[in-house]
């Protein structure tokens, strides 16, 4: 048996944790640069505020109904996500973190008659310990657990437990194929052409026929819908193939120095993330995108990339190459709205091809980066390359617009709420 625990309106729920006055109020969270709505509470959705709608289109609705608006606070959401996962592990040791707000749990050792009570306990503990509401779907396969969770939200039960085919038969018959985990838009269209109109029709297909006409992945999906587990928990995430750091600017940038500063900053952040996972990069890419300022401008979608002589996680080496690529890309007279840095050809130090003459230099760079990371994680201060600017991480010309950003309640001492 598997359980899928999914946080309800996660971003909006995170903003409510330290704002009890918003417990039953409509709340929306905006995308980068406060451009459009990326998440909303149930109350906001009931007002007709859809995910993906541009902010300017719903400003009057927000003003009329007093909707609370927040910029995306990824530091807060990431920390509360870690707390949710740790809380789940306090009751069920085997947990696969599927996304920032979802986790699969292994319940194979739990007696069937205790599954409902455990689901209720999981909901109660996460809400009590973290303050984030969740729903729980329990079933013999991950695909069915995902669907059970969907109906736990839709029906308002909070917990749905499916143990035998008769438990999920009616729900499958009510579910369009496109709402089933693993069925994308193109596959749903192909299934509709074949007369497969709901999940029950999909589950009734012959495995061998599906494998011949589609693939083994879809054949496994059919088996999963019939209660035969084909997907196991992935307790160790697969190694990354790439690390991308890219942000839109809060305003158009027309000169090269701010772009250099942004690229230095993004490269340092990507390198720090890569070092945290014990990886090295063999190639780095940089791309630029223009920002239209009242009239169409020429876009430069092509990026430049270059390989490293030796795979590295040294921010200095990566930043030097990134700036060289940026200077090749930059065209004077254009208004730029976005820049991105991508690290690829990732490998571990054990699998990296060493150099005959660079070994000692690489070891020195590794020690320096280790010291930098230790200082930056200590909470006592931060160090960075001067190319990132004198106030790295603070507001710069190229920084995102985040006019409605909430405090870093859980990660910055100065932002701790005070009760007096």
UniProtKB/TrEMBL annotation:
It is an enzyme of class 2 (transferase). GO terms for biological process: DNA repair; error-prone translesion synthesis; SOS response. Residues 2-184 form the UmuC domain. GO terms for cellular component: cytosol. The keyword Nucleotidyltransferase applies. Its EC number is 2.7.7.7. GO terms for molecular function: damaged DNA binding; DNA-directed DNA polymerase activity. PROSITE patterns: UMUC. Keywords: DNA damage, DNA repair, Nucleotidyltransferase, SOS mutagenesis, SOS response, Transferase. InterPro entries: DNA/RNA_pol_sf, DNA_pol_Y-fam_little_finger, DNA_polymerase-Y, DUF4113, Rev_trsase/Diguanyl_cyclase, UmuC. Belongs to the DNA polymerase type-Y family. This is Translesion error-prone DNA polymerase V subunit UmuC. It comes from Alcanivorax sediminis.
